[in-house]
Design brief:
This protein is α/β, with parallel strands linked by helices. Helices cover 42% and strands 14% of the residues. It has 14 helices and 13 strands. The chain has helices at residues 19-26, 47-56, 69-79, 92-103, 118-126, 141-151, 171-178, 194-200, 208-214, 242-249, 259-268, 272-296, 318-327, 350-366; strands at residues 34-35, 86-89, 109-112, 130-133, 155-159, 186-190, 218-223, 236-240, 299-300, 307-311, 330-331, 333-334, 342-346. Strands 2-8-7-6-5-3-4 form a seven-stranded mixed sheet, sandwiched between helices. Helix 2 (47-56) packs antiparallel against helix 11.
Length: 368
Amino acid sequence: MKFNSVLENVTTYEAGKPIELVVREYGVNPEDVIKLASNENPYGTSPMVTEKIQELAKNMFIYPDDSMYELKEALANKFDVNDKNIVIGSGSDQILEFCVHSKCNNDSKILMSKTTFAMYEIYGKQTGATILKTPDDEHNLEQFSTMYKEHGADVIFLCLPNNPLGECLDKEDVYNFLSEVHEDTLVVVDGAYQEYATFKDEKKAIDAKDLITKFPNCIYLGTFSKAYALGGMRVGYGIAQEDIIKTLYKLRAPFNITTLSLAAAIEALKDEKFVQDSIAKNFEEMKRYEDYAKVKGFDYIDSYTNFITIKFEDLYSSKAVAQELLQRGVIVRDLTGYGVNAIRITIGSNEQNTKVFKVLDEVLEKLK
């Protein structure tokens, strides 16, 4: 059977390994598995959300409100924009897909950092677009500027902060670069981890309304999967000028968000204390990883997210370290597939992190 030829060059996205797989393959007790590979919030979901879902579970047979009025209104109030400036997706990655398919074909070019969220490239290749990557792993706006001037681009992806590495650009530098970009280039500012960056350093904070007002060719993406702890509910959003949103709606299937997902997101926005407490604990625990890396002599990337990237250089193989951890029930992300000899570890709870350090010590001793 013949398929679309552009798919020949598309790789399948590899999600973080689930707990069930580790239990099945390595015989680890489910209660002993620590999953720190997918950047989920280790503190569970807001009790307000859980209560609301239990209350509405009886309505699962009813289609969701496809206007998504309540969620859009809540987001409009949060970001001080109009509900016509908002599109809701099944995770922010669905909106990434909308953005690429709204602009790209075989003649298009997409510009991104060398090491960034894999779905940018995957969605781009699905359209046959040419993928342009900067030489450096981390975001380097001088390189973005040089390549844009030389090659142009139909879509530019800026991941702020960047997944899977964790670094983040200053807003002022981002704005300086955006002022060079032609109005017909769609710039996607992926703010999946912006809540963390804003908490740590105001210079990194991107205000969605300010962004789309100053640069009408930009779209800001946010998600409920990280700080709001709704990874399993799959809710994301895009904020842009109305003409962009109208175009993206042409790609949206009806009822792309479930009844319970909508309710969960609406309720999550009401519990800002849960979010801020989670973020504060995240950076308290991250300091322990930074100290651990220093003691071991490992480099790490200064992170503005809920994960940390620890580099092994030529000391250890990240693939071997990740595999040994996996066999002991600790799931982390090996970045070998990105061309980086490093592991990405989601910052867990205090108890989880204490166990990670103990197990990691055992693994490093074994691999000496």
